[in-house]
């Protein structure tokens, strides 16, 4: 049986990080537990925060069709035949709060959390005793947070080592349009006056490249523990933002630990 290496979601709202792996088979699969995540306070931040979070993993499948919560996203495969997976995706994206440590960036104002919607496609292959996945997705804002479009392509690999241990790795890159980049990395004239940062107009381009690794240990038939770490590097217009150059960092890491019970 294949377990999710990382499915981190808040019941309300959803927060995730890293690669998620859906469970195969018919019926309902549910995992509940607790997690802790150490991550940047906002996109481009050099300050980190630790957050305890509920852990919720969910998948309901019927044949080739499924609905699953995967790493902060709700996905549904609507393609029969088993050749590949394709369908709609709804994803939560955290914003920038008004209580962050960095005073200059705080003066730029709060960015609300966004709910993005779009489509995804994924193909899986059996490789070296494990599963290699190739995935692409394109999403847009459903509200009025960034009003932009972004797309992610990536690879992930999972392998079960024995009846206790499983490992995984993932690599991805994200492209975003001008509206998305300006929301998270731009500095308006008014924002520059309030914060002391240089005005900055962000452009469309590659936002980041990210690599991650996961380790999962099956404690018993129901209990499991996992760890996931990732490193992302902001590039292009995101890395050149005065938010990142002067007050933040282009290096973005994240570590997650979780303990959960599977039904």
In short:
With 263 residues, this protein is mainly beta.
Output the strand order for the largest sheet.
Answer: 1-2-3-4-5-6-7-8-9-10-11-12
Count of helix runs: 5
Number of strands: 12
- Mean pLDDT across the residues is 91
Strand share of the residues?
over 45%
Series of H and E elements: EEEEEHEEEEHHEEHHE
What does this entry look like structurally?
A twelve-stranded antiparallel barrel has the order 1-2-3-4-5-6-7-8-9-10-11-12. The model is unreliable at 1-23 (pLDDT under 50). Helix content is 11%, strand content 52%. The chain has helices spanning 103-106, 178-185, 189-195, 236-240, 242-247, and strands at 27-40, 48-62, 65-70, 73-77, 85-93, 114-127, 130-141, 149-160, 165-176, 205-218, 223-234, 251-262. The chain contains five helices and twelve strands. With 263 residues, the protein is mainly β.
Helix/strand layout:
Layout: E1 27-40, E2 48-62, E3 65-70, E4 73-77, E5 85-93, H1 103-106, E6 114-127, E7 130-141, E8 149-160, E9 165-176, H2 178-185, H3 189-195, E10 205-218, E11 223-234, H4 236-240, H5 242-247, E12 251-262
Antiparallel strand pairs: 1-2, 1-12, 2-3, 3-4, 4-5, 5-6, 6-7, 7-8, 8-9, 9-10, 10-11, 11-12
Quick tags:
263 residues; mainly beta; twelve-stranded antiparallel barrel; 5 helices; 52% strand; disordered N terminus
